[in-house]
């Protein structure tokens, strides 16, 4: 593999957003593209690591900044930065759609073969892209928040959905997962939910104990991290079928 990366700058309205693009330069021809919606800490090393992992599988991956100016907040600043996006779902979707347009415009990307993944708040963002009927074949939410959907949006959804969540996540309790399942039953799309026993919120983030020490709601879970990534791989393999064989 010959990993290549590029920093992008793009706008949503008056806000300048950043992106981290990753791809394998040994591959030729248009490839499926995957948009990465990071967790609330923003476009940092963890999002870039996931982009490299996707590039290793043969995808063109774009991790996006949804705050503006590449902000990577923590603590109280994180809560302040994320508040406008939580309060205004249309703003959240516009930021995500701006990133998706950048991914779709890349020369190595097959614009008809796109997917999105997201972590924590980014998982919420990925689901909102599906509800906005974005030009995606599928979305994957890793321990993402579950907000209620509008009935008219459920009927219009086209992207397949894979929800990966922890059984011991107090921020996304199993009651919320059950409500999500009831919503998805009212859509025309293919959808799956996988629940990992013993896993708490942010189960894919190895450094979560350093970022939020002492928070009992959060915890890395190696098995759930590994299994959820494999579930995503299988999901993408089905989405893109013989058009794109995943790398070992």
Structural class: alpha/beta
CATH architecture: 3-Layer(aba) Sandwich
Low-confidence stretches: 242-248
Helix content: 25-40%
The neighbouring-strand order within the major sheet is: 1-2-4-3-5-6-7-8
Tell me the overall shape: globular
Provide the residue-averaged pLDDT: 95
What is the highest CATH level, the class?
Alpha Beta
Query: What distance lies between the first and last C-alpha atoms, to the nearest angstrom?
Result: 11 Å
- Give the SSE order as H and E letters: EEEHEHHEHEHEHEHH
Strand content: 15-25%
- Helix count? 8
What is the CATH topology descriptor?
Rossmann fold
Q: What's the CATH superfamily, by name?
A: Alpha/Beta hydrolase fold, catalytic domain
Please state the CA-atom Rg, rounded to the nearest Å: 17 Å
Task: Summarize the structure in words.
The protein is built from 8 helices and 8 strands, in the order E-E-E-H-E-H-H-E-H-E-H-E-H-E-H-H. It is an alpha/beta fold. The chain has a single domain, classed as Alpha/Beta hydrolase fold, catalytic domain (Rossmann fold, 3-Layer(aba) Sandwich), CATH 3.40.50.1820. Strands 1-2-4-3-5-6-7-8 form an 8-stranded mixed β-sheet, with helices on both faces. Helix 2 crosses helix 3. The termini are close together. The relative contact order is 0.13.
């Amino acid at each position: 593999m010959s990993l290549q990366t590029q920093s992008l700058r793009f706008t949503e309205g008056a806000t300048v957003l950043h992106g981290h693009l990753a791809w394998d330069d040994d591959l030729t021809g248009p490839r499926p593209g995957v948009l990465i919606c990071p967790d609330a800490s923003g476009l940092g090393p963890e999002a870039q690591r996931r982009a490299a992992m996707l590039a290793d599988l043969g995808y063109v991956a774009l991790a996006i900044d949804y705050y503006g100016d590449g902000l990577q907040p923590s603590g109280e600043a994180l809560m302040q930065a994320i508040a406008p996006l939580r309060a205004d779902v249309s703003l959240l979707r516009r930021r995500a759609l701006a990133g998706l347009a950048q991914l779709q415009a890349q020369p190595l990307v097959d614009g008809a073969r796109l997917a999105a993944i997201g972590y924590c708040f980014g998982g919420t963002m990925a689901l909102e892209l599906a509800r906005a009927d974005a030009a995606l074949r599928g979305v994957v939410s890793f321990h993402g928040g579950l907000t209620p959907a509008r009935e008219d949006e459920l009927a219009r959804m086209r992207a397949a959905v894979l929800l990966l969540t922890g059984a011991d996540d107090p921020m996304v309790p199993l009651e919320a997962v059950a409500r999500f399942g009831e919503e998805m039953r009212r859509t025309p799309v293919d959808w799956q939910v996988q629940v990992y026993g013993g896993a708490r919120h942010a189960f894919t983030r190895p450094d979560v104990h350093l970022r939020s020490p002492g928070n009992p709601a959060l915890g890395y879970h190696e098995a759930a991290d590994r299994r959820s990534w494999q579930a995503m791989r299988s999901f993408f393999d089905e989405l893109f079928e013989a058009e794109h064989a995943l790398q070992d």
